[in-house]
Amino acid sequence: MTSHTEEVVHGGLVLALIVRADFQAEGVAFLTPQTYSQQLGYMRHPAGKVIVAHAHNLKPRTVEYTQEVLVIRRGKLRVDFYDEGGEYLESRVLVSGDVILLIHGGHGFEVLEDIDMIEIKQGPFVGQDDKRYFPNVDASRVKLPS
Questions:
Q1: Residue 80 maps to which CATH number?
Q2: What domain range includes position 33?
Q3: What is the pLDDT of residues 36-77, one digit of tens each?
Q4: Could you tell me the pTM of the whole model?
């Protein structure tokens, strides 16, 4: 990863991939391995570039875990990471233009400044059957990188 991307890892398990607003690469750069059920790619092309028209073939896939992508359009959000059992691990702060792919473990959020964000995940949305809940970390225990 570069200084403009970060993998949040605990016990060898990747919890999240953060792509900061200032990330840039030429052409097409896929930032996730083929093993993830959600692929995150970045594209940068000059004006006039033509991308060949296409349609995607029907390809059955098995999705075992919901993976979410959040796009922070405006504001500031703290993301708290938890293990599968609900134990708090650490946190990161996202700002306007940042993107995060939530891969494994649990997560919670605190809005630090008014935000507009977009959430992208596999469907269909199955409501409360898709999650289990646990207590949010107390603000006095939040761990951010220095």
A1: 2.60.120
A2: 5-42+59-121
A3: 888 999 999 999 999 999 999 999 988 877 889 999 999 999
A4: 0.91
